[in-house]
Amino acid sequence: MKHVLLLGATGTAGSAITEKLLSTTGHHVTLFARHAGDRFSDGPRMTVVNGDAENVEDLKKVMPGQDVVYCAISGDALPQIAENIVAAMSACGVNRLIFMGAVGIYNEIPEEMDGEDNLDNEPAQRPNRQAADVVESSGLNYTVLRPGYLRPGDENDFVLTLKGEPAKGYITTIPSLVKLAVELIGNEELYSRENVSITRAWTPEQEQA
Question: Is 202 exposed, middle or buried, given 0-12, 13-18 or 19+ CB atoms closer than 10 A?
Fold first, then answer.
């Protein structure tokens, strides 16, 4: 059993990962979000914490004893949140971090697919890129995940690419992200210190969807 701290637990990805962890693993999950208590209740393998990741002291309170930290937070404050996570983990001796960013932060989406969501064309990508840079320079055992737009679908409908490679798509099925997230939580060596895009394989037909 591992102790997993899930930041952003009430969001789309966080909620889906929580459900999978509780139903298919023996891990203990600490669910952390500003209004986590509105959505979840404490249980035998679940601790619910209302907290703000923009406040490093809130993170330091829940960090001791954790084996893995998974960050599913998004938004303009993400670079500061990344710095707070790194600081809290370093202070509390926690080393494994799985951090969600977004595909496109390295201008890796080919133009014929969806180039408008690349960093150079989409200012909203800047916090995602800055936060990923913080994580990569942290010295932690990190994995940066770069999903695309989250949609329903099949858990096996995905392709992976590493940083520096062109992305193969810009849409990610929620079940595929959850599947990889649970595997990463369970295996600290899987994509250790790697930066990975997970998307469906793009086809021209998606342009009509």
Answer: buried
Q: Contact, 65 vs 29, CB < 8 A?
A: no
C-alpha–C-alpha distance, residues 38 and 64, integer Å: 24
pTM over 0.90: yes
CB atoms within 10 A of CB 80: 17
Degrees (nearest 5) of the Cα angle 56, 25, 189?
Answer: 65
Q: Is 66 exposed, middle or buried (0-12, 13-18, 19+ CB in 10 A)?
A: buried
Per-residue pLDDT of the chain (209 residues; tens, 9 = 90+): 899 999 999 999 999 999 999 999 999 999 999 999 999 899 999 999 999 999 999 999 999 999 999 999 999 999 999 999 999 999 999 999 999 999 999 999 999 898 999 999 999 999 999 999 999 999 999 999 999 999 999 999 999 999 999 999 999 999 999 999 999 999 999 999 999 999 999 987 665 44
Nearest one of 8, 15, 90, 18 to 52, comparing CA atoms: 8
Q: Tell me how long the chain is.
A: 209
- Cβ neighbours for 57, distance < 8 A, ≥ 6 positions apart: none
DSSP character for 200? P
**Looking at this protein, which amino acid is placed at residue 105?**
I
What is the rounded CA–CA span in Å between residue 115 and residue 167? 11
